[in-house]
Design goal:
With 333 residues, the protein is α/β, with parallel strands linked by helices. It is built from 13 helices and twelve strands.
Length: 333
């Protein structure tokens, strides 16, 4: 067998690349921006067996026609909404993701956003920087709310949701959750499963951590948002399109939702003209929930190990998204 080639559509932590090169792989990395030009990617994967992308990169039938040697696509992270899984399955291209290393980081960010909203961290920062603090004590509008004793509702109890449940529970919150596939968190974490409507009606903080699929698009709808407990805080670390943004804006304006901490948006980057950008009761971050050194290193190594196991050893990936073409039994995601 000749040298195996892997193309990275993104620059990643060096440890994963070093691991592949030590095993004799030819590694090509696009490092000039967020998304490589189609022409570059099409040319590079022509003789490649592996392709590494992030959730923002698109893999469709047009790209797959560029190569008849491609055997595996690995997502450096969790989101797979931009990958045409059906066409990959038809062409025998295995698709896998690597969500484990970033789960704790994303859960920590959900907690950070919740606390930032509850404790007016961003508003307090702006107050100090503006020089207003020189005029007297901080105003009553900056009085915060304690997390302890509050009910936190987790929407989606996968890796991120489960990790978030443990964090919030450790800080003294009552935690309830809803998930499309009930993972029995009650026994492992000591939290309560409830229906989605009840979760919104009871929760002081709602954390959205469900994957974006056709079934979950705008699942956090206007009717659901306006059922929320008065004064609730909404945190989203999943995907922007899981929430109906226009409905969220209305709920924030009317005070049904008291505040929001958002790391993801329906349109990214978030346009400066978005109503969310000018709301004092909203804390915004630029899709960085999983953006820690530890998560980047861990994901990079996990991706490299998946490529080595699959392309060299013939071992299926741990997180297959196209089971048949990956050589494992199981249902499609």
């Amino acid at each position: 067998m000749g040298s195996l080639k892997v193309v990275y559509a993104v620059k990643v932590h060096r440890k994963g690349l070093e691991l592949l090169r030590e095993k004799g792989f030819e590694v090509v990395v696009y490092s000039k921006g967020r998304v490589p030009p189609f022409e570059w990617l099409c040319k590079e994967i022509r003789d490649a067996q592996g392709l590494v992308i992030t959730p923002i990169h698109r893999v469709n039938s047009e790209l797959l026609r560029c190569s008849d040697k491609l055997r595996i696509v690995v997502i450096h992270g969790s989101g797979y909404e931009n990958v045409d899984l059906d066409t990959c399955e038809e062409r025998g291209v295995c698709v896998a993701n690597e969500p484990d290393a970033i789960a704790e980081s994303v859960a920590e960010h959900a907690l950070a956003l919740a606390l930032a909203v509850l404790r007016n961290v961003a508003r307090g920062d702006r107050y100090v920087r503006s020089g207003a603090w020189r005029e007297g004590p901080a105003p009553r509008s900056l009085i915060g709310t304690s997390l302890k004793g509050k009910t936190v509702g987790i929407v989606g109890a996968g890796r991120v949701g489960s990790a978030a449940a443990r964090l919030f529970k450790a800080l003294g919150s009552r935690v309830v959750y809803w998930s499309r596939r009930k993972p029995e968190l009650e026994h492992g974490v000591g939290v309560e499963y409830v229906g989605l409507e009840k979760l919104f009606e009871e929760s002081d903080i709602v954390v959205v951590a469900v994957a974006h699929t056709p079934e979950t698009h705008h699942m956090i709808s206007r009717s659901l948002l306006f059922r929320a407990k008065r004064g609730a805080v909404l945190v989203n670390v999943s995907r922007g399109a899981v929430i109906d943004t226009n409905a969220l804006v209305d709920a924030l304006r009317e005070g049904v939702i008291a505040g929001a901490g958002l790391d993801v948006f329906e349109e990214e980057p978030l346009p400066p003209t978005s109503p969310l950008a000018s709301m004092e009761n909203v804390v915004l971050t630029p899709h960085i929930a999983g953006y820690t050194w530890e998560a980047m290193e861990g994901t990079s190594v996990a991706v490299a190990q998946t490529l080595i196991r699959y392309l060299v050893q013939g071992v299926p990936p741990l997180n297959p998204l196209t089971p048949r073409s990956c050589g494992v039994r199981g249902e499609r995601v």
